Amino acid sequence: MARVIIGIHGLGNKPDRDTLEKWWKMSLLEGLEKNGYSAELPLFEMVYWADVMHPKPLDVSIRDEEDPLYISEKYTSSVADFKQKNHRFVKGIMRYLGKQLNKIFLKEDFSLRYEFIPDYLVSRYFTDLDIYYQDEGSSETSPAELKKEIIKKRLADCLEKYKDYEIMLIAHSMGSIVAFDVLSFIIPQVPIHTFITIGSPLGLPLVVSKIAAQYKPQPKGRREMLTPPGIYANWFNFSDMLDKITLNYQLSR
User: Fold this and answer.
1) Strand pairing category for 192-198 and 166-172
2) Which of 3, 5, 18, 25 has its CA nearest to residue 48?
3) What stretches in the chain show pLDDT beneath 50?
4) Percent of the chain with pLDDT strictly greater than 70
5) Residue 166, φ and ψ in degrees, nearest 5
6) What backbone torsions phi and psi does residue 234 show, to the nearest 5 degrees?
7) Which of 54, 94, 169, 194: CA 20 to 30 A from 239?
8) Where are the beta strands (DSSP E) in the chain?
9) 25-47: per-residue pLDDT in tens?
10) How far is CA 6 from CA 42, 55, 130, 143, 150, in A?
11) pTM of the model
12) Do residues 9 and 48 make contact, with C-beta atoms less than 8 angstroms apart?
C-alpha cells in the first residue's frame, strides 16, 4: 500500500504554502537523519489554511522586525549537541494542574462553568481559535463560520483523496482541533494509520466543551471526547512541558 504523510499547521500567520511545506519536509528529514534512519520521505502534502485567516503570508525577505509580515521563527536545524531534559517532576505538576483545570471549568456534562473566562483568554491571545469558534449555533452562517468550514473542508478533501493510502496525519497546535473535528464528525470512515498531535490544545477546558457539544445531538448522547473511529493503529501526542497551551497534555479518554 502506498504511504502518505499529511501535515496541517497551527494557529497564527505563516509564510506561503510552498515555503512552509518545504520547512516541514526539512524538519522531518532532519529528524530521520539524527535518529539514524536513511529512509526517504514518502509522499508529503501540506494542508495550508493560514490564507483563510490572514490576507497576506509572512515574508522571508522582510528584515524589519516591526513589520507585521516579518517571520520571527524561521526554520533552523537543531543544535548538534541537543540533549533531552528529564521533565518527570514538571510532568507530574502539569498532569495535576490539567486535571484541576477540568474540575474547575467543566461541569459533569462537559459544558463550561465560567464561559466568560476562557472566552476572554482565547479572544485576547488566540485570535484564529477565537474566529474558529465564533458564533457557533447561530441560525445564519457568519463569516467566521464560513472560514471554519473552508478550513475543515480542505483537510477533509485531502484525506479523502488519499483514503486508499496508509495515512500518517501530523497536526500542529490548532491544526489538531481541526483534525479532531474532521476525523470525528465529517469523515470518520477514512482510515488513519497514525495520528500525531504536536503542541495540541485539545485538553483545554474550552476545547473539550466545544467538542463535547458536538457529541450531544448524536443518538447515543455521548459527551466525552473519544478517539476518532478512523484511527486504527497509533495516536502519539507530543508536548513541550513549558508550553502553557498544552497544560493538559494527556489526551486520554
Assistant:
1) parallel
2) 18
3) 125, 135, 137-139, 253
4) 67
5) -85, 110
6) -140, 145
7) 54
8) 3-8, 43-47, 166-172, 192-198, 231-238
9) 999 999 998 888 887 899 999 99
10) 10, 24, 25, 27, 17
11) 0.81
12) yes
